[in-house]
Amino acid sequence: MRVAVDFEECLKDSPRFRAALEDVEGDVTELEQKLDKLVKLCIAMIDTGKAFCLANKQFIHGIQDLAQYSSKDALVETSLTKFSDSLQEMINYHTILFDQTQRSIKAQLQTFVKEDIRKFKDAKKQFEKVSEEKENALAKNAQVPRTKQHEVEEATNILTATRKCFRHIALDYVLQINVLQSKRRSEILKSMLSFMYAHLAFFHQGYDLFSELGPYMKDLGAQLERLAVDAVREKKEMEHKHSTIQQKDFASDDPMLEYNVDAASGIVMEGYLFKRASNAFKTWNRKKPDGIRRWFSIQNNQLVYQKKFKDNPTVVVEDLRLCTVKHCEDIERRFCFEVVSPTKSCILQADSEKLRQAWIKAVQASIATAYREKGDSTEVEGKPSPSRGSPETGAEPKEKLLKGESSLQRVQSIPGNAVCCDCGLADPRWASINLGITLCIECSGIHRSLGVHFSKVRSLTLDSWEPELLKLMCELGNEVINRVYEANVEKTGVKKPQPGSQRQEREEYIRAKYVEKRFVERCPAASGGKPRPRSQGPQRHSGSPEGRAEEEEAPPTAKEQMAAALRVRSNDSGFQHSREQLASAVSASTLYEPEAERPEAAASASQDARPDVPGLQLYLASFQKSLPGMAEALAHGADVNWVNAAEGRSTPLIQAVLGGSLVTCEFLLQNGANVNLRDAKGRGPLHHATVLGHTGQVCLFLKRGANQHATDEEGKDPLSVAIEAANADIVTLLRLARMNEEMRESEGLYGQPGQPSSNPTEMQYRKCIQEFISLQLDEA
């Protein structure tokens, strides 16, 4: 049985139902126009035919007159008489044809248009009216505060009554549509068949055209009889189904309160939800495009929504395995729940508590199912989601998508980054920004479970990337990091996971690699020999010949040897030839000054201290701007906030400032460096960046919550230093930061350092800082 509009979809009032109505209504309108046009043409044809018959009669009278004139010629008279009689009979056949045409085409089709299509239009008006009333009732029910119980009951009663009325009228409308769609076939074909039989009778001699069409018309007549019988049967069945559905209980809030994770269509659950706007005001206003109801569905391991059924879906959650769902009881509106993903959160509102619970259970069940299914990671990594190809992704701005794609291409162009760093799966779409590696979605989930102190995961396509982070990713890469963290993996006999490995196998390997650091080559130990004291002879000026000779013969200091080792390391991508130099540098670092040339306390401290090889390596690599050396030092267990007591309690972050590299500072900050840790003179990284005039570093430290009110031992804060140095850019930045800080405190918006805000002044200030950082990176 062919049904134009499904009764079950009518109860759901789904976008499919609305789309089907739209198609049917457009089709009926077009059908009415075609039938009206056909009836008018039929009338014109009949009028023209009557005029033709009148002219033909006059022509026959002329032939008869000619026959009487030819009475002396019997052959001519007999022939003309027969011709006139035949033509007169043809006129009679024409008259019968026009009468049959008027009955079969004009009268029958006009009756169908005036009666059946008119009933359809009246049902359409009633449906549109009650549909609008239902939408108003739904909106009013959703807007009622939970605290006003009497308004809640009133809104609920109105909604129940309106929904019941809507379903009755909608079912009647669907019945009228299906009956009309079924009846129009028989009416059109019946009238046309009658018209063609009139022509068959008219051309009784059987012209070639009608001889060819004869079998077809007979077959069509037989089909028409069957169609008429089927139409009667279908009408009875639809009336029975209409009556059965009317007897259902309409008191429930929604016909679909259950989910099915194994649905053949791939849709676990679908229905209308209110969506809170994602703008800064977080409104539920129906006049805003983001605040009205949307048709949500869980399908293909994603949560999506659409405004109309014909629209491309907007993806809310790219992968359900990366999200969580929870109740929202801290907002005024009822029946709300929140879906939280690594990149954003979305607050939704159902029409009732039953629906809210059903949606939460559906999302949780989909998350569990997605983890159980095999091959999900390959499918998600290898095939873009509808939102990327969608316009909307609805949802995501085009600029962000373009930026994400350029970030993906730029990072994946680094050697080794075209595959996952841990399992080797091609086309990774995730990254660890503090390690500088690319990951597949399965390994990224394991990295996220390690905690941000080990790995900070970010999407290469869904997240926006600051230029300093992109630069950091391009300075490192999978090959560089794996040469450090997998240096001894073959010696241990541990097998590296493959793209098809189980999650447990991957998790064990990743924890051993990054948490236990089981495959990292051990750091060289310090030399056990007794340190050789420096010469205590008379001092010579460096400008004298003796002084120059002594300088040429004096062995290099520990810092010089370590710097040389790191220079070799940064130039040699294979990290060769530097292990011996590092051990030599550590041994030389135990050299001490004579007792007569330093304070007693410093002498005793130097004798008792042992050199921290990873800390010293990180310290010197930060100055040398060697990110591979810094990564290796951190892998060996270096403290990112290591303090060099021998050099005024300077830290690796301060050394990175002195080295002049913004990316080095970003790397240390991503790995937990304290932006406010100061040296012996009371100067932190922001102080040193201001003294040296490194505008990009100043922006970076302000962005990461550096304390610009801290003063050094001379009582100067960074702003005072910048004013003395007459550095207009840094003075402007510091004053903007101070003004922004004061505004945030006065408005009660002050939060954690670096926390984003919707305040326009805050946003403008952060935009200014990001532009300075981008400019510094471009110049570098």
Automatic annotation (TrEMBL):
Main location: membrane
Domain of life the protein comes from: Eukaryota
Name this polypeptide is given: Arf-GAP with coiled-coil, ANK repeat and PH domain-containing protein
Keyword check for Transmembrane helix: no
Subcellular location: Cell membrane; Endosome membrane
Entry remark concerning the domains of this protein: The BAR domain mediates homodimerization, it can neither bind membrane nor impart curvature, but instead requires the neighboring PH domain to achieve these functions. PH domain binds phospholipids including phosphatidic acid, phosphatidylinositol 3-phosphate, phosphatidylinositol 3,5-bisphosphate (PIP2) and phosphatidylinositol 3,4,5-trisphosphate (PIP3). May mediate protein binding to PIP2 or PIP3 containing membranes.
Cellular-component GO terms for this entry: endosome membrane; plasma membrane
Pfam families: Ank_2 (PF12796), ArfGap (PF01412), BAR_3 (PF16746), PH (PF00169)
Residues of the PH domain: 267-370
Regulation of its activity: GAP activity stimulated by phosphatidylinositol 4,5-bisphosphate (PIP2) and phosphatidic acid.
Signal peptide: none
